[in-house]
């Protein structure tokens, strides 16, 4: 089960408290968007779910099991970075297969998983290409492919579209949503773009200065913002 429970999570860097007690229950199969201004703590929270950052206090569970002390590779998650995180010297197929090495899978199963993900993402004709021989959108699909091949319980995205141009960004949003409709993998998607949040989310978490201001569906936030911050953030142009 891909439920994620975040209980009163805090993060203190040196003496600076950047997460000040964050709690949210993420439902199995949900597409949850974390949104808020730059520096409010979105990436820090995502990195704590991934295990890339230690939790100062509080608990994070996946499928009911507390994972605070699990190594990143032992967590049932996959993180999607911006497309420039691809290995430049590896082909599309190798980039995707590499994500499965740690899992101790047979070559036959790895190949099958990569073929299936490539099919979903429309990458089948490009498996032998290097990242530099791909368009920006194709590279972003490969970055997603590396997560999909692992069939994790949870996908984590940290501003995956922020280095794409506006037109491609709109197209990739809808592709990510289509993939989600197909795979139904619990997703936590970070963006500072309120339009992206409003168009993609099942529910939105609005963060500000290390705290959650409001959690709700796009419509709830739009119709009944909890405070002036949420109203201003959701209501302002990108
Ligand atoms: P966001 O992703 O919402 O833009 P971050 O989670 O990256 O915000 O950062 C939240 C705050 O934590 C910022 O003030 C940032 O400067 C600080 N911060 C992030 N990482 C570190 C770190 N490794 N050491 C010290 N401060 C950090
Ligand atoms: Mg960030």
TrEMBL record:
How is it placed in the membrane, per its record? Peripheral membrane protein
Q: List localization entries.
A: Cell inner membrane
Q: Which GO terms describe its molecular function?
A: ABC-type transporter activity; ATP binding; ATP hydrolysis activity
Q: Which organism is it from?
A: Devosia subaequoris
Q: Per the record's keyword annotation, is Protein transport included, yes or no?
A: no
Keywords recorded for this protein, A-Z: ATP-binding, Nucleotide-binding, Sugar transport, Transport
Q: Cite the source lineage.
A: Bacteria, Pseudomonadati, Pseudomonadota, Alphaproteobacteria, Hyphomicrobiales
Major localization listed first in the record, in broad terms: membrane
The yes or no answer to whether the keyword tRNA-binding is present is: no
* Family, similarity comment: Belongs to the ABC transporter superfamily.
Per the record, the domain of life is: Bacteria
Q: Which terms under GO biological process does the entry name? A: carbohydrate transport
- Give the CC-aspect GO terms: ATP-binding cassette (ABC) transporter complex, substrate-binding subunit-containing
Name of the protein in its database record: Multiple sugar transport system ATP-binding protein
Which stretch of the full sequence is covered here? 1 to 238 of 351
The segment(s) forming the ABC transporter domain are 4-234
